[in-house]
Design brief:
mainly alpha
């Protein structure tokens, strides 16, 4: 039963990552004068509304809002809101390739470092090797080609974005047992949407007058945000946070495939090598569950989630 739950969690996280991987191709369909920060803020707002509608559609998920810890929800919401804004700022400063490579590639490192500090257990050999291969593959996929000026400030923003995403994953994993995934995701993204709403008043929004932008924004909000993070939150209840964040590296793999097939970007040798490394690393992580913490095995705590299988 535990193996079945773990496999279901793996499938949910990979499906979420594949949805996230569509965002680059979709944003390419928006007007050239689009503002990335506005896209990020609207994506969060639309996603939060969709998740709220989903959570309010059933009595069980609607009532579950009362059981959520306010502090945990606030922390997770601010973390995912910070990730979105920091990520778009990093891409502006460091270029798409370098910014994405550092932000996505650093998240598993942040999460694994926290888990090692909290449990005093190093990752198993095959698991650690799989994470290293995945990060290296993701870097090759997104850091080759036209990367723009890799400014030190942009690299720092990207690393902070990775830390914010890691913090969101850890916080959501910790409080995920307190409510159904739809309820938890609706609450955290409601906080994120409110926190990033001022961007809409500060950045140019004239390009939003074009009617063709709204179907793209709708999918970015409903599909690539609401559905994706609902799946990711559901998967986090069945996996270690470091496993989920590593599996989410399927995002740049999906983005590369779409860029190659839809946009027509060349399939260069470094990117093919990156795809191979990433697939090999994800397979190793999938086959190597994380060891549960000793404290979780020795004494149950009703305020903490049950032991996770990897």
């Amino acid at each position: 039963m535990r193996d079945g739950a773990r496999l279901a969690g793996i499938a949910a996280v990979i499906a979420a990552a594949m949805l996230w991987g569509t965002t680059g191709t979709l944003q390419a369909a928006l007007p050239p004068d689009r503002q990335p920060l506005v896209v990020g803020a609207l994506r969060l707002a639309i996603g939060a509304l969709a998740l709220l509608a989903l959570a309010l559609s059933a009595p069980a998920t609607r009532a579950a809002f009362r059981g959520l810890p306010p502090g945990g929800v606030l922390f997770a919401g601010l973390a995912i809101g910070a990730y979105n804004l920091l990520f778009f700022l990093a891409v502006l400063r460091a270029g798409v390739g370098v910014g994405t490579a550092i932000a996505i590639g650093s998240a598993p490192v942040w999460v694994t470092a926290w888990e090692v500090a909290a449990t005093r257990r190093l990752p198993r050999g095959r698991r650690a090797a799989g994470q290293a291969l995945s990060i290296a593959g993701a870097g090759l996929l997104v850091a080759t080609g036209d990367t723009g000026d890799a400014l030190a400030g942009g690299a720092l923003l990207a690393a902070l974005a990775g830390a914010a995403y890691a913090a969101y994953s850890l916080a959501t994993s910790r409080i995920g047992h307190r409510a159904p995934p739809a309820t938890l995701a609706a609450a955290t993204f409601g906080v994120a949407a409110l926190a990033t709403l001022p961007v809409l008043a500060l950045a140019p929004t004239a390009w939003l007058a074009a009617p063709e932008v709204w179907p793209v924004l709708a999918f970015l909000g409903v599909g690539a945000t609401a559905l994706a993070y609902a799946l990711y939150t559901w998967g986090l209840r069945r996996l270690a946070a470091s496993t989920a964040v590593t599996l989410a590296l399927a995002e740049p793999l999906t983005a590369w495939v779409l860029a190659t097939l839809v946009v027509g970007e060349p399939a260069t040798l470094p990117r093919l090598a990156g795809a191979a490394l990433l697939l090999a690393g994800l397979a190793m992580v999938t086959l190597s569950p994380a060891a549960p913490a000793a404290a979780a095995r020795s004494r149950p705590d009703p305020t903490r989630p049950p032991p996770i299988s990897g």
